[in-house]
Amino acid sequence: MSAIDPSILDRLKEFVSVSELSRDGRLKLPPERALCEHFGMHRTSVRNVLSVLQNLGFIERKQGSGTFLNMPEPVFIQLYFELALKLNYISVDHLESAREMFEREIVQAAAVNHHEPELERLEALCNKIVHSTDVLEGLQADYDFHEQLAIMARNPAILIIFQGLSTVLKKVLHQRRVLTRQSSVAQEKTNETHIAIVEAVKTRSRDLARQAMDQHFETWNQQTMRSYRQEMDDAVEK
Length: 238
Description:
single chain; mainly alpha; Arc Repressor Mutant, subunit A; Four Helix Bundle (Hemerythrin (Met), subunit A); 2 domains; four-stranded antiparallel sheet; 75% helix; 5% strand; transcription; WH-like_DNA-bd_sf; DNA-binding; DNA binding; TF_FadR/GntR_C
C-alpha cells in the first residue's frame, strides 16, 4: 500500500473516531482485533494501515501498552516538499518565495500574539546571531530565530508547515548561507535586520513587523547574491 494513498488518511480519521482517552490523557486506538471487527477489515490490512501511519508519524506503537495517536511531525510535510523538488514539480525558488510569504504573515501574528517569555527568547537568539563568532552556531541561531517567530504566531498549522518547509530549505541553501555568514559586510547588514525585527515585534504593531521582515528579505537576497558572485569571481581568478 502506498504511503501517499488517500485511503490511508481516510482510515486514520475512522480510527480516530473509535479511539479512547488513556489514563495519561493520550488518545489510544483499540486493539487490532477490535479494529478488524469494527471496520470489517482483514487483520493484514489493518496492520498495513497502522504500519504506514506509524512511518508517517501519526501513531506510536508501544509494546505492552497499545497504539497511541500523535500529532504529525514536520517530517511529514518535509517529505512531500523533498519529493516535489526531486520530481521537478517545484523549484528552490518556489520554496524560497513560499517561505517569504509565510514569514511576512508569521511576523505580524507574532507581534500581536506573543507572550513576554517568548519575546525574551527571540531577543536572546538575536543576540546570539549578532555576537556568535562560529559560522555554524550563528546559522543555527538564525534558524531558531525564525522558528521562534513561528511559535510566537501561536498557530499550530502554520508552525507545522513552516518547520517542514524551512527544514528542506536549510538543506538545499546551506552553502549559500555559509558564504553569507562568512562575509563580514553581509553579516553586519543581516544582523541589523534581525535586530529591527525584534524591535518591531516589541511594539505589537503588525505594520512595523511586516516592514521589518520586508527589509530583512530584501537585505538577505541582496547579500546572498553578492556573496555568491564574489565566490564565482574568486574561483575564476584561481
